[in-house]
Amino acid sequence: MEILTTVLSVTVISVSLAIIIIIAEYFFNNYGECEIDINNGDKILKVEGGSSLLSTLAAQKIFIPSACGGKATCGLCKAQVIEGAGPLLPTEEPYLSAEDRNNNYRLSCQVKVKNNIRIIIPEEFFNIKEYITTIEKIEQLTHDIKGLRLNLPEGETIKFKAGQYMQLYTKPYGKIKESVYRAYSIANAPSDNTAIELIIRQVPDGICTTYVHTQLSENDNVKINGPYGDFYLRGNCDEIIMIAGGSGMAPIKSIILDVLEKGIDIKMNFFFGAVTKRDLYNLDYFENLAANHANFRFIPALSKPAPEDNWKGEVGLITDVVARNIDDGSKMEGYLCGSPGMIKACINVLNTKGITEDKIYYDKF
Ligand SMILES: Cc1cc2nc3c(=O)[nH]c(=O)nc-3n(C[C@H](O)[C@H](O)[C@H](O)COP(=O)(O)OP(=O)(O)OC[C@H]3O[C@@H](n4cnc5c(N)ncnc54)[C@H](O)[C@@H]3O)c2cc1C
Fold first, then answer.
1. Which CATH number fits domain 33-125: 3.40.1360.10, 3.30.70.2970, 3.10.20.30, 3.90.1300.10?
2. Ligand 1 mean position to 245 CA, how many Å?
3. How high is the mean pLDDT in each 10-residue block of the chain (365 residues)?
């Protein structure tokens, strides 16, 4: 009897608490209609309060760059919030410099729309569009990298700069009950403007990469939006050095194709680093390009070739290979794409070759 009374009391208390929380949520999180003023009255949106600024704008088809899907881990979704943002959150602090803070920059994924807000965003964000694409082709490039070609809807085209990226949306699958989105660099040339090619490496237990690698098939529909990013060719020089690892080949491939197609008079050196031969892909493709274009040099390198690889090319860490193959970089620009560790090490080696930081551009994956 005593046990029954205790169980009953606990149940009553739990249910009462749950009801109180639901009622509180309704009253305190119900912010009603709010107004978002964009660029001093250029656009005024009437929205339902309660969600992040990033997702509220996305629901209105205004897309702010983001690579982590609103988790405050990429720091890309900065926007100037002139009024109505509330206090700065600890989650934003690592991504905002003193200058950012003085200029009212905030991470739009962390700012909740609770009242009227005034924001300033670059005009180019209005050109970012959403596309429901159809997968034309999925190719297994290595044991953990897939290449995808996504066709835009019939009659639609996209304008992007070689080196930029798109955001790809997942659908709920398995234990993943929500849709997320992640950034993926465009691998095709801008002239190929009715499709988007992506190169995606499987991250163990990664939500989006597992979705791409295990759930998607040819002819499936995939939602993407973009283009985003400022990783593109500046070309204020006669020669560039490009270094990539893994799926970091994607934006570099787009830049190379663009330069060759447009006949831009720039010498290109492309260093591609992998561990063993099973991590290499598109070798024939780039060797063929190099054989047919005097201004393009391709240097693949393996850091730990297996005996059965029978590898005759460069061996060593990509930084050592770059150091051996570049003498004077003082008149070059550097373009890097890969893991944060690789980027850091490559910046150091480029500095020793005379390429200053202001001439080095990168996307960290
Ligand atoms: C501008 C930009 C362009 C990008 N372009 C590409 C591209 O062309 N191709 C590509 O494959 N990726 C690219 N990325 C990375 C991509 O956006 C995702 O971060 C990555 O695919 C992992 O997503 P996920 O949802 O599978 O993993 P999540 O579910 O986000 O992460 C799961 C776990 O894995 C860890 N993790 C996340 N990413 C990595 C990683 N790269 N290596 C090791 N551990 C990781 C996380 O810390 C977490 O613990 C790009 C990123 C940026 C910022």
1. 3.10.20.30
2. 14
3. 76 70 59 94 95 94 88 92 95 96 96 96 91 98 98 96 96 94 96 98 97 98 95 95 97 98 97 96 97 98 95 96 95 96 96 96 93
